[in-house]
Design goal:
Elements lengths: L7 E5 L8 H13 L4 E4 L10 H8 L7 E7 L5 H14 L5 E5 L4 H5 L9 H19 L7 E4 L4 E3 L9 E2 L4 E2 L14 E5 L3 H10 L2 E4 L4 H17 L8 E8 L4 H16 L5 E6 L2 H18 L12 H5 L33 E2 L13
Parallel strand pairs: 1-2, 1-12, 2-3, 3-4, 4-9, 9-10, 10-11, 11-12
Antiparallel strand pairs: 5-6, 6-13, 7-8
Helix pairs in contact: 1-2, 1-9, 3-5, 5-6, 6-7, 8-9
Length: 365
């Protein structure tokens, strides 16, 4: 008998903007107790509040298994810096990072930066797709064993295992290579809310996880099939794409938590989605009911795991770790001092510790 298809479950933990990292750490730990795949933390230039990526970087050392997915606005920000920050989150969390690209479309937000006017949403999502593209290229600009870390000789990097990116988009260019080693997951997980048409186009090209909003299982299943078919038409493997229905949740009692479990089970039985992203109306009230009420029922019916079988977000989602675009064989034995190489090696040429290839970051005009 074939193994049951896994149900993926995630939740938004954004709350009141005055709350800081300690509050979000407690919520992430609670979600981790419920074995959720990941938590998201929303962000926007249009409202006050802490930077989501920075907050989850602080949450990372205080959690052990749950994936951490901040919203990262790609408009007005430098793609090189976005890529570096997301890679750093993956290192800090030991392979549990994702990121959710978003765009900034208002004149008020543009005025905060003063470099260019607001642009149409279609253009902004095209740019967001290019940011996702160049981020993946930058993550691949270091081969997995580019670091030598030979303390005895002071050798840190094999210079031949770093690569220029040389990317030119409509609104920015990036030469690379990255200034952060290749992340533990290879590529941190890209999560895009594909509800809108322009965002969906970026999602089918670049996302590992697509969030969609639907009010019934038929609509949800239709959206899932559309996204998978469009991804396949662009040369992607639909089996390496997860489509999660993003549901608003408002719970007040244990009975409400039971009703949510029944709804999830019903939609899942109709093959409406690969899982669900829950958006609590009041996260301080609703998340405990989800973890202590909804989750145990799903586990009782063998729809949700009781423990994390892996350590990385890609493992939680059943997604393969991408091979680097410049991957090659391991370095020859003896090329790096024993105990100082991340992986055993096969190349002898290395370099003294320095800024990798004097990286040229590029940027916006």
């Amino acid at each position: 008998m074939a193994a049951p298809r896994p149900l993926h479950l995630a939740a938004e933990i954004g709350g009141r903007p005055q709350y800081g990292a300690a509050h979000h750490t407690a919520l992430a730990r609670l979600a981790e107790r419920g074995t959720l795949d990941f938590v998201t933390l929303d962000d926007s230039f249009a409202r006050p509040g802490p930077d989501a990526l920075a907050v989850l970087a602080r949450v990372a050392p205080e959690t052990g298994r749950i994936g951490l997915v901040p919203t990262v606005t790609t408009t007005h920000t430098e793609p090189f810096h976005v890529s570096s920050a997301v890679a750093t989150l993956d290192w800090v969390s030991r392979g549990r990072a994702g990121w959710s690209p978003a765009v900034s479309a208002t004149a008020g937000e543009a005025a905060l930066f003063g470099r260019r006017d607001a642009a149409p949403v279609d253009e902004l999502w095209h740019e967001a797709g290019e940011v996702a593209d160049v981020s993946a290229r930058l993550w691949d600009s270091w081969e997995d064993d580019a670091e030598i870390r030979d303390v005895a000789t002071g050798r840190f990097i094999d210079r031949d295992r770093l690569h220029y990116t040389d990317f030119t988009g409509r609104t920015f260019s990036v030469r690379g290579p990255a200034i952060v080693p290749r992340p533990p997951q290879g590529h941190p997980v890209t999560v895009i809310d594909g509800t809108g048409a322009a965002a969906r186009e970026a999602a089918v090209r670049h996302a590992d996880v697509v969030l969609v909003r639907a009010e019934d299982p038929l609509t949800a299943r239709t959206l899932r099939e559309e996204i998978r078919n469009r991804a396949a038409a662009r040369g992607r493997r639909p089996g390496q794409l997860r489509v999660l229905i993003s549901l608003p949740v408002e719970l007040h009692t244990s009975a409400d938590a039971v009703g949510l479990a029944r709804l999830i089970a019903d939609w899942y039985a109709q093959d409406a989605a690969d899982g669900f992203h829950l958006r609590p109306d009041d996260v301080e009230r609703d998340l405990p009911l989800i973890v202590d009420g909804t989750v145990p029922l799903l586990q009782h019916h063998c729809l949700l795991r009781r423990f994390y079988p892996g350590a990385t977000l890609r493992e939680h989602l059943g997604l393969a770790r991408p091979a680097g675009g410049h991957a090659r064989g391991p370095r020859a034995p003896g090329a790096a001092a024993p105990g100082h190489s991340r992986t055993p090696g096969t190349r002898a040429r290395d370099t003294q510790a320095q800024h990798p290839k004097d990286a040229i970051t590029g940027g916006r005009p």
